[in-house]
Design goal:
Layout: H1 7-13, H2 16-24, E1 35-39, H3 45-52, E2 56-61, H4 64-73, E3 78-81, E4 93-99, H5 110-119, E5 121-132, H6 138-150, H7 164-173, E6 176-189, H8 196-203, H9 213-231, E7 232-233, E8 236-250
Parallel strand pairs: 1-2, 1-4, 2-3, 4-5
Antiparallel strand pairs: 5-8, 6-8, 7-8
Helix pairs in contact: 6-9, 8-9
């Protein structure tokens, strides 16, 4: 993944990420007792939900700080530090599950990630995932781009937000047959007391690299002021999320 996470702030203020992920679990059709990998498990919240659903689970994440939180919160579960592009399992999994992760993988590495996922699934095993789709956060990203340009900077977001038509061929080419895919709007209210400024500071870091803190604070403040009439109602901010939800089955080589 291409972002350094603040694990405690993520767990305390942005728990909606894994809370929405619970619904994605309903796409898993493997029986209880199946081996499920939670790829990009973060603080382990969904790994624990998968275990509670009766699966044998392993959480994998590239962030040591996130895994520290996961092991502290769920000492009874197994976790492994590894990258989505290169992780290796001792035995192929029945399901590889991933929520809110794929859009953090660079676009030019998506196929490599999918090939590695396929290599770690048994034949007939499932990939079940949800991630950002085309248009996700477009109002926030668009306003940031305007503010960056206003002060002589270029805004280059790092997230990869594809369409279904763009993404499913990559899945097919990797040796996985897509049997379910949907793109949908999911406007996402932020926790009470948090604004779009908090969201930007958590999820949009690299575009500000090298910028003076004073200028960064000004751009974030002015972005919030400009977006408030549209995205903030009665003190609650709602970010314009768009999601792809997808299930694919590994086919025989």
């Amino acid at each position: 993944m291409n972002l350094n996470w603040n694990a405690k702030d993520y767990g305390n203020g942005f728990s909606f990420v894994h809370e929405y992920g619970e619904d994605v679990m309903s796409l898993i059709t493997a029986p209880k007792g199946s081996q499920v990998v939670d790829l990009g498990c973060g603080n382990g919240a969904l790994t624990a939900k998968l275990a509670q659903a009766g699966f044998k689970v392993l959480g994998i994440d590239a962030s040591a700080t996130m895994l520290e939180e996961a092991r502290k919160n769920h000492p009874e579960l197994s976790f492994k530090e590894a990258d989505a592009l290169s992780f290796r399992l001792e035995e192929p999994a029945d399901v590889i599950f991933s929520n809110a992760v794929f859009h953090w993988i660079d676009e030019d590495k998506q196929y490599l990630m999918l090939r590695n996922i396929a290599a770690n699934l048994r034949t007939g095993g499932q990939l079940v995932t949800e991630f950002g789709g085309i248009g996700c956060g477009a109002k926030v990203h668009g306003m940031l781009a305007e503010k960056f340009a206003e002060y002589g900077y270029s805004y280059h977001p790092i997230q990869f937000f594809p369409s279904i038509g763009e993404y499913t061929p990559l899945v097919d080419q990797a040796g996985l047959r897509v049997d379910y895919a949907i793109l949908f709007d999911r406007p996402t209210p932020q926790p009470e007391g948090l604004s779009v400024s908090d969201w930007i500071r958590m999820f949009i870091q690299q575009p500000f690299d090298g910028m003076a803190e004073e200028m960064k604070a000004r751009i974030i403040r002015e972005t919030e002021e400009a977006l408030a009439p549209e995205l903030c109602q009665d003190g609650i901010w709602t970010i314009d999320y768009v999601r792809i939800r997808l299930r694919a089955v590994k086919i025989e080589n």
